Known about the structure:
By secondary structure, the chain is mainly alpha-helical.
Amino acid sequence: MPLREHLRELRRRTVLIALGLVVGAVAGWLLYEPVFDLLQQPILDAAERRGPRVSLNFQGIATAFDVQVKVSLFLGVLLTAPWWMYQLWAFITPGLTSKERRYAVGFLAAGVPLFFAGAALAWWAVPNAVHLFIDFAPDSTTNFVDAQLYLGFVMRVVLAFGLGFLLPVVMVALNFAGLVRARTWLAAWRWAVLVAFVFAAIATPTPDVVTMLAVAIPICLLFFAALGVCLLHDRGIDRSLVAQGLPRLDGTMADDGPDRTTGTAPGAA
């Protein structure tokens, strides 16, 4: 596909993603109140322990409206996750055959649960972070938590964890599209582990090691699981190419082995 066609395809997929997010945001607007109650629950739990000195605060006149818009967009991203994941897959793999495009089912079947698993893990870590940070406030003070800053923090953490858990699916998608070979991922495994721990250290809102390990270790395990899938995929393609007398993906030819009629290697005296 030429560059111009790629740009057109990118524009088309971007528009489709945007339309899906708009539909999801409308649904998120309707679900705002119960979701807002859920998001502010860590603050309410902290208020039960410390009394009325802890409260969520809307500072400006239009702050409540801004918060509802942001939460609706956040819900739109979550609710339309299968839609925008499919559009990303369709953009990455436009040259696949009709048979290979069936991998989209597997891509979504793995990507959607992983995305929500990462989001759920983030939500597990957020209440601990809220309790930790609020406890730093002296007992004689009042902690009015800015609603925009708090909800923005929670939404960024949830989305960051969800996208982080999509890394293995992106690896497999790039490999199946023929853009990155498994040996490339294998050569970078040390960097992948380092990046996973750095990401966990930055993304986890609490400074304790247990929470960081709870995030980094699953990401590392998912990376190696995706690496195994990529290795099996490349091996299957190499076998198919060798059977057709073609060079492997890395450009090397298969060893012909011993001659079946004489039992000697090709070219032997």
